[in-house]
Amino acid sequence: MAPTDHGTGPIEAVHDPRYLHYLESAWTEWQALGFEHPLIPDTFPLSRLLDGRLDAVAADGTARAMSGHFTFDTATPLVAGTYVAARASANCALSAADAVLAGGRFAFAACRPPGHHAGRDFYGGYCFLNNSAIAATALRSAAGGRVAVLDLDFHHGNGTQQIFWDDPEVLTVSIHGHPDRQYPYFTGRAEEIGAAGAEGSNLNVPLPAGVDDHAYLAAVAGASDRVARFDPAHLVVPLGVDTFVDDPLGDFAVTTDGYARIGRRVASLKLPTVVLLEGGYAVGAIGRNVASFLRGLEQG
Ligand SMILES: [Zn+2]
After folding, report:
1. Ligand 1 centroid, distance to 99 Cα (angstroms)
2. Domain ranges of the chain
3. What is the pLDDT of residues 54-109, one digit of tens each?
4. Which of the 8 DSSP states describes residue 233?
5. How far is CA 42 from the centre of its chain?
6. Reduced to 3 states, what is the DSSP secondary structure of residue 90?
7. How far is the centre of ligand 1, averaged over its atoms, from the C-alpha of 57 (Å)?
């Protein structure tokens, strides 16, 4: 089905208004400053520089000064079409949520740009709006009940973790390369379990290099047990196929057949499920790996 425009409401339910204003206006301001190249920050406001007072300083800055305030990396250029593309991607995620709310067993959206590295008020990792968090929040507001997010991208879903960190009604689970060796480095450890009052609502499963189908499925089985115990009404799966054996960024060894087995394991949860595309850098293999996962989900 074709995605439909859901307006700004479901996005504002997740992201900070000042951040959204920045995303929408930054490129125009950047051009007004005389720049034509992609907006990439050159400076980041480390919190230890000024006792936490840097937030107020950055809020009054130009697009150039504020860029470092609203992102955590230099890998995510902001360009002319960024905001429009991010909005379209979020609309795809919301339309997939609609399909599940209408009674579908599962729905998939090929979201581009991806979303799971975007937090409440920051972007990074090629992500600007957190599609999974937006879909999860929309599912909760439309149908009530708890929602679980099972992040199967190779990298830690740091943005999703931040957004739901203090929310005991949303379980966030991420299976990923250990942050000691892999992006985004500073988060994704097993000790991160959620804020006071929401302890246990965040589960990180950091894994060593070389994880094959068998080891990955074992991690998915453990994570699925946790999801089942949480007893959510809906499941959102940010699916990255950068866990693939030939992926140039990831160092896992999941095979195309493995994705079908992972899909079947997720299907065994018997939950209405929204699957949203995240990473995948073996570009020629993305389609068949995603299709394999979806076939498993359909069969399971
Ligand atoms: Zn990734």
Report:
1. 25
2. 9-67, 82-299
3. 665 555 567 777 889 899 999 999 999 999 999 999 999 999 999 999 999 999 99
4. S
5. 25
6. helix
7. 32
